Amino acid sequence: MKLILFDIDGTLMRSGGAGFKAMDRAFAELFGIAAATRGIVPHGKTDPLILREILRRERLDGAREEDSIAALQGLYERFLPEELPSSPAVLMPGVRELLDALAAADGVFLGLLTGNFERGARTKLDRFGLNRYFPFGAFGSDDGDRNRLPAIALARAEAAVGHPIGLGPHVLIIGDTPRDVACALASGAVPVGVATGSYSVEDLEAAGVALAFADLSDTTAVVEALGVLQPVCSPRSRPGSNSKAV
Q1: Above 60 in pLDDT, residue 238?
Q2: Which residue has the higher pLDDT, 5 or 245?
Q3: Is residue 216 within 8 Å of 94, Cβ to Cβ?
Q4: Is 43 in contact with 199 (CB distance < 8 Å)?
């Protein structure tokens, strides 16, 4: 079997700046700071890490930093659904076709491994109707350290499928940044890169990916490269099928 965990931003989709707009509104409401995300490079960072970086730059860190992050998270999660409908969000090439193929494959289970807060992740995926592919995952709201998320995702995967899976070469983490690659390598999973974010195939190869794609548009080639077998039965009849809606 294979457990395949997907990043969201830059891998499955782009939210068209909606996330940073929602964060800016959160900082403006809580602290009166305008354009708080200016100069922040988000690639591969978790949402708590981004908020912490801004708080420390603005000298708003201290003993109550965790309370500030929790308050900002609540505001961000309220504002994000308001920003997404007008944002130029984009679904990455081939994503829906690939998810359909993987969800129909025998012995393949799909999940999320993303730095987004869970509610924010689900809101973003709702823009393109992708939540149904991902019945479980690990999120920035679980831990601000991305390298701790694979173990969380694994535990939820095991609970979902009803038997042990374990970390190892049968677990693939697909992302678009060197941080995604480092996360996979640190956990013993296989890092798979896709150059639809801010990093090239060469950048991802230098970071240590096992596989790298320019994009996910060639469904057959990607499925074969991931070592996924085509189904021998209907996914609707298979226990634990990823076709079940979240």
Answers
A1: no
A2: 5
A3: yes
A4: yes
d(CA 90, CA 164): 36
Which residue from 246, 100, 224 is spatially nearest to 160, judged by alpha carbons? 246
Among the listed residues 131, 93, 138, the one whose alpha carbon sits nearest the alpha carbon of residue 115: 138
pLDDT in tens, 12-21: 999 999 999 9
> Domain 2-14+90-237 belongs to what architecture?
3-Layer(aba) Sandwich (3.40)
Predicted confidence band at 229 (pLDDT cuts at 50, 70, 90)? low
Question: How many residues can be counted in the chain?
Answer: 246
The 10s digit of each residue's pLDDT in 59-68 is: 997 779 999 9
> What tokens does 119 get?
């509610």
Q: Are 131 and 245 in contact (CB under 8 A)?
A: yes
DSSP per-residue letters across the chain = -EEEEE--BTTTEE-TTHHHHHHHHHHHHHH--SSTTTT---TT--HHHHHHHHHHHTT--STTHHHHHHHHHHHHHHHHHHHGGGS--EEPTTHHHHHHHHHHSTTEEEEEE-SS-HHHHHHHHHTTT-GGG-S-EE-TTT-S-GGGHHHHHHHHHHHHHTS---SSTTEEEEESSHHHHHHHHHHTPEEEEE-SSSS-HHHHHHHT-SEEES-S--HHHHHHHTTPPPPSS-GGGSTT-TTS--
- The 10s digit of each residue's pLDDT in 69-99 is 999 999 999 999 999 999 999 999 999 999 9
Q: Which token pair is 234?
A: 């209907």
pTM: 0.91
Which residue, chain included where needed, has tokens 């200016």? 38
